[in-house]
Design a protein that fits this description.
Blueprint lengths: L5 H5 L3 E4 L9 H14 L6 H5 L6 H12 L5 H17 L9 H11 L2 E6 L3 H10 L8 E4 L11 H10 L6 E5 L2 H9 L3 E5 L14 E3 L7 H9 L7
Helix pairs in contact: 2-5, 4-5, 5-7
């Protein structure tokens, strides 16, 4: 199998990307808006209180905040207020992809791998971000955690993405920056690359098969090892 052309070898495999903190360095924006909305409700949340919810979908996150802080406002109202602020920020911010992402996506597309974004953010925000970053052309599917029953660390969003791509979970590789996302990939039975983004807060990436500090580390040889050598990741 190792001697077959790359495109043949990888044609039934996929890479699934988280968005926030992986494609764009946006986790600090999410944390700030969460704290801003909580503060408007009289809840004094510390940064550590919100970073542990990195990767968690809006409904699950704001339901937890409501319970944890005894908020009077209904969760759907909190979510709408949060979404409005977030969309306004992203529309008016000159965002750029994380270093190495365009090159990595181009390499993956050259391999013939299937690709998806599977994010806990809303579909409106996913579409806005990938279009502003000019990377929408690299993805076969966009999947939001708002369309599945359970949020990360449950595997639902990644399993939905693999279903849309028609690729077995065991043939999927997830790229994640959060503890919840890495655990979701693990629970889905998928391989995982953990991206240690210093702006995503303290995140436990220990369930990832391979942890990188930059996307320049993700070479063609290492990708082939991830998909073809039974999780033997060292080269």
């Amino acid at each position: 199998m190792r001697n077959l052309p790359d495109k043949f070898f990888l044609r039934d495999k996929a890479i699934i990307f988280d968005m926030d903190g992986v494609l764009v360095d946006s986790q600090p924006i999410h944390f700030r808006v969460d704290m801003e909305v909580l503060a408007s409700c009289g809840a004094a949340a510390a940064l550590a209180d919100v970073t542990k919810f990195a990767g968690v979908a809006n409904v699950a996150r704001w339901t937890a905040y409501k319970q944890n802080y005894g908020l009077a406002e209904a969760a759907p109202d909190l979510i709408r207020r949060h979404a409005g602020i977030l969309m306004e920020i992203f529309r008016n911010t000159n965002i750029k992809p994380i270093a190495g992402i365009p090159e990595l996506l181009s390499m993956i597309r050259g391999f013939g791998l299937k690709t998806a974004v599977a994010s806990s953010s809303s579909m409106a925000l996913i579409e806005l971000v990938v279009n502003k970053l000019d990377i929408a052309k690299y993805f076969d599917a966009l999947v939001t955690g708002e369309d599945v029953e359970r949020s990360k660390p449950a595997p639902d969003v990644f399993l939905k993405a693999s279903g849309v791509l028609r690729v077995s979970p065991r043939d999927c590789l997830v790229v994640e920056d959060s503890a919840n996302g890495v655990m979701a990939a693990y629970n889905a039975g998928m391989k995982c690359v953990g991206f240690r983004n210093p702006n995503s807060g303290e995140q436990d990436l220990s369930r990832a098969g391979w942890v990188v500090e930059s996307f320049g580390e993700v070479t063609q040889k290492k990708l082939l090892l991830m998909f073809g050598c039974d999780n033997q990741l060292s080269v």
